[in-house]
Amino acid sequence: MLTRREFVLVICGLSLASLTGCGKEETVVAHCEPQPIHDGDECAVCGMYITEYPGPKAQVCLRDGRVLKFCSTNDLFVWALQPDSVPQLLRAYVHDMALTDWERPSDDAFIEADIAVFVTDTPLQGAMGPALVSFGSREAAETFMQEHGGRTLAYSEVDWETLNELVKQGFDWD
């Protein structure tokens, strides 16, 4: 039988042990894979139907297990560059446009966004105007640029200035 003192120590120890997990953020990592994009899926930023527009799409897995889908890589970055988005982001995916069709990108062509090479300053239009075109390799991006021009950026180099330049290009449409 426990003495009164031992009982109090056990209860205090259990209380402290239960508090140990408090304040720690749980991460849902188990099933963070690209999801198919369906006809009725809406962009998490602009609300447009994703499949109605050409060019690369994107999606993110959040730490709480939710998946957000985007009609363009441009909108992915509009979301990802928000300060409150950074702590929520577990993983981001974009289409490797060397592996899929421009008009209707395949769900099988998603790659992790942080390894992608992005091409900007091209004449190609996506859902949000001039596209930020994603590729799985620098070689594929350079092959694309031989035909369409542009310049390459790494995921970490895409910033608000890049997005603003894409918007300015959109106003130069003929």
Automatic annotation (TrEMBL):
Transmembrane segments: none annotated. This is NosL family protein.
